[in-house]
Amino acid sequence: MVASDIAVQLRGLSRSFGTVTAVHPIDLDIPRGDFLAILGPSGCGKTTLLRMMGGFVEPNAGHIEVNGADITHLGPEHRPINMVFQGYGLFPHMNARQNVGYGLRLKKLDRAIIAKRVSEAMALVRLEGYEDHMPAQLSGGQQQRVALARALVMKPQVLLLDEPLAALDLKLRQAMQEELRRIHREIGGTFVFVTHDQGEALGLANRIAVMKDGRIEQLGTPEDIYLRPQTHFVASFIGEANLLKGRRRGGVIETTCGAFEEGGPDGEIALVVRPESVRRLGHSERAEIETTGKVDEIVFLGAHVRYVLSLSSGEKLRVQDPVGKPRAAIGDMMGVGWSRSAQRIIAG
User: Fold this and answer.
1) Do 63 and 94 lie in a common domain?
2) Which CATH number does the domain housing residue 337 bear?
3) pTM, to two decimals
């Protein structure tokens, strides 16, 4: 990737608070037009990283470039970046139009230009007709749209979103996810958003950076992160995953599900397979990898039934079975299997 394709470049960026290191030195390139999710549990450093990009937290070391220009020590108001906060941050005494146009008024732009750009931004977030509404008259989703319009009206080169949908209920979150995808397609900007919600990251982003303890554990497409996790943490944090212990000796992996050949260094390994990749086997059915377990738990989840099996090793294996098939019972022995291509081997 050539330098001109990079919107944001982080090099050695780190931040500590007293004796606590929130973000260890991070190198990260964010291509122009990217929709990047920074995903991780509370306290992993994701919000600190985003706030360093936005200029609200000063890094202890490293630098930040946007489109080749060093902005490390510029204040938020001087960066070609805007940020949408979790709490919206709307001025309660201003109506929606005034909130959206606030930054443009600070720049002392012509009134006609401000009116035109505010109107365009309100249309982009589908809030035409709500210009005169006060924040208290708007729903949570509408307030979030106003906050988004206020950021977009400044035409930032990079838009940062700090858990922007966290305060919304499930239906509103899903609707706003669709809106964010649409807006990103329409304006073609570079979006970076922080979330602890794996479903949100998988549904919105074209790339995901999974963080743990102030470091990026894995960076890749949603498919890479979900189907090809590189660590225990990523495998277990993103979706549901079965992790079965094993050992590799001389290119042969031995697990409770049998032995098979797969190259790599000798030592402890973990076999990762998603519950939806594990299927019940009938009496005459076979699979590349097979095992048998006792049904310990049955949960109806609408489109499928989840079984939790207890294997001979004492490990648990989660299985998703389509609704409509004959239901097993607690205590039954169940044969299951999956294909080699559905599993991932990681260091134990």
Assistant:
1) yes
2) 2.40.50.140
3) 0.88
In this structure, are 327 and 285 located in the same domain? yes
Cβ-based neighbours of 222, under 8 Å, separated by 6 or more: 201, 202, 205, 206, 207, 208
Model pLDDT for residues 128-180, shown as the tens digit of each residue: 999 999 999 998 888 888 988 898 888 889 999 998 777 777 777 887 888 88
The residue among 234, 262, 284 that closes a domain is 234
Place of tokens 């030195």: 25
316 in the same domain as 228: no
* Measured distance CA(183)–CA(344) in Å, rounded: 35
| Run of H or E residues at 14 | strand 6-17
* In a shared domain, residues 248 and 171: no
Q: Are the beta carbons of 14 and 61 closer than 8 angstroms?
A: yes
Secondary structure of residue 178 in the 3-state scheme:
helix
Can you name the residues that pair with 57 across neighbouring β-strands? none
Q: Helices (H), strands (E): how many in the chain?
A: 8, 20
Do 11 and 128 reside in the same domain of the chain? yes
